[in-house]
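PROTEIN DESIGN WORKSHEET
SECTION A - STRUCTURE
LENGTH: 189
TOKENS:
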């Protein structure tokens, strides 16, 4: 297990704290007069989903979480549980909405994801950077409504609402950035 320093704690880095895996969801380097610098962080427990705030000092050695990766496909959701199928063993497993965090809103049937396993147990997923979705609802653009960077709200096939350019129509397929939730481009057929 490799050790990290406070300077390594950036968003997305996985660490072990009290024998449980956490991922950094926010970090802020603070330096004040007459004091040593510190790194304030918010960590999400990959097993329970709860948020923990910790402050690290220079010289602190933080164990990196030993997470193994595997591929899986999203199947369905039932009672706050999200079911996946491992693409190698074809075993089905579920993760709670708390474990998945904000990633839940980007899930759709058949989506291929990376699964992060801690001690041979799936604890969370990592979405692809960009995912294609079908526009389920989108109001038609009205002539004269266009100003600089004109956009409208569209509802995607999984129920997610995002801002899209005025030229996007219902039934089209678009690409969405999963890290920001923003429209990226039209999907090529």
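SECTION B - SEQUENCE
RESIDUE ASSIGNMENT:
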């Amino acid at each position: 297990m490799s050790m990290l320093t406070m300077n390594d704690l950036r968003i997305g880095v996985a660490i072990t704290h009290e024998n449980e895996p956490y991922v950094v969801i926010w970090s802020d380097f603070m330096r004040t007069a007459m004091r040593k610098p510190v790194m304030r962080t918010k960590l999400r427990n990959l097993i329970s989903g709860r948020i923990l705030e910790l402050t690290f000092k220079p010289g602190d050695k933080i164990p990196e979480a030993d997470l193994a990766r595997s591929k899986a496909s999203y199947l369905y959701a039932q009672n706050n549980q999200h079911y996946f199928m491992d693409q190698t063993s074809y075993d089905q497993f579920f993760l709670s909405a708390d474990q998945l965090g904000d990633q839940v809103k980007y899930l759709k049937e058949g989506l291929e994801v990376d699964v992060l396993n801690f001690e041979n147990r799936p604890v969370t997923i990592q979405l692809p950077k960009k995912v294609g979705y079908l526009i389920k609802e989108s109001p038609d653009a009205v002539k004269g409504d266009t100003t600089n960077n004109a956009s409208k709200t569209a509802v995607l096939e999984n129920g997610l609402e995002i801002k899209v350019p005025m030229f996007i129509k219902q039934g089209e397929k678009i690409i969405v950035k999963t890290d920001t939730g923003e429209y990226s481009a039209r999907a090529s057929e």
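SECTION C - NOTES
The domain at 67-126 is CATH 2.40.50.140 (OB fold (Dihydrolipoamide Acetyltransferase, E2P)).
The two ends are 44 Å apart (CA to CA).
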